[in-house]
Amino acid sequence: LVRLRERLSRSNSALGQGLLALLSRDTLDEATWEEVEETLLLADVGFGPTTEIVDALRERVKVLGTREPALLREMLREELLRAVGTDVDRTLRTTRHADRPAVIMVVGVNGTGKTTTVGKLARVLVAEDKDVVLGAADTFRAAAAEQLATWGDRVGVPTVRSDKDGADPASVAFDAVKQGIDDEVDVVIVDTAGRLQNKVGLMDELGKVKRVVERHGPVDEVLLVLDATTGQNGLRQAAVFSEVVDVTGIVLTKLDGTAKGGIVVAVQRSLDVPVKLIGLGEGPDDLAPFDPEAFVDALLS
Ligand code: GDP
Fold first, then answer.
1. Which of 114, 116, 225 is the pocket-test mutation for ligand 1 (most atoms within 8 Å of CB)?
2. Atom of ligand 1 nearest to the CA of 109
3. For residue 135, what are the β-bridge partners?
4. How far is the CA of 263 from the centre of ligand 1 (A)?
5. Cystine design at 188: which of 67, 87, 180, 274 (Cβ 3.0–4.6 Å)?
6. Is the CB of residue 300 less than 8 Å from the CB of residue 77?
7. How many whole angstroms separate alpha carbon 35 and alpha carbon 32?
8. What tens digit of pLDDT does each residue of 128-144 get?
9. In Å, what is the CA distance from 64 to each residue of 58, 68, 206?
């Protein structure tokens, strides 16, 4: 939590500090409220949520007639929290079923941090004493499977992969889950391909991977990895993916390197899917469950 605060606040506190500075001006006039709006939009909060936050703040300031900084800060905190959503179920389903492991599919465009996220997630689960198997279903590039296997070695879990380039991704994913069943592990995490250049092919492939894996039983989580630094582009990617697979959670990566933490709000709103995990760096321990309170506090710290 301390690290979360450090990492997030280093890049995002400009947002919180900017908003607090605006709110503590001598006069809260129309121009100031417009600046508040601009600040939120620049942090990628998105148009709808921004309007809601500003309207609510304006109304509350008007009704209360207060300019007390501590109160204004608390109001801002509450409105940001409301926008982020506190009553959303962000639980990651990683509990083994009676006869088979929990299965997590990780999808997203190349470069967003998919493979790194699989590695970090495996590390988190191992730390919870869970047995994990990784599946390298990005068979298009040998380097992708290699990278995943390296993560597997690093965190001490086996990686199921194909010997040959261009093997059928669905069959590798199927084999990974099969091994997970045979070895009675708790969780199988399947890394998938993300070449968006060939959109139709990729989407067909992902749908097929999921269907084939589900011959063993339903997939528990489909996590969509989005790079927080890509803004609207990330939102468009998210829409494309959610058309072919039922995304159950979002992983927002690279939140350590951006002042655009507001994307958390925008992406949840546009997909109606909760942000469940956030990436805060390249190391094995740089993945955290998304905690709205800690997040908003970090913004305002
Ligand atoms: P993939 O192509 O989607 O599998 O992406 P990779 O897992 O290979 O990650 C792409 C790059 O992003 C790598 O250099 C990672 O180290 C980096 N990366 C992944 N997650 C994070 C994160 O949360 N923060 C930062 N700063 N870098 C990250």
1. 116
2. 3
3. 160, 190
4. 17
5. 180
6. yes
7. 5
8. 999 999 999 998 877 89
9. 10, 10, 52
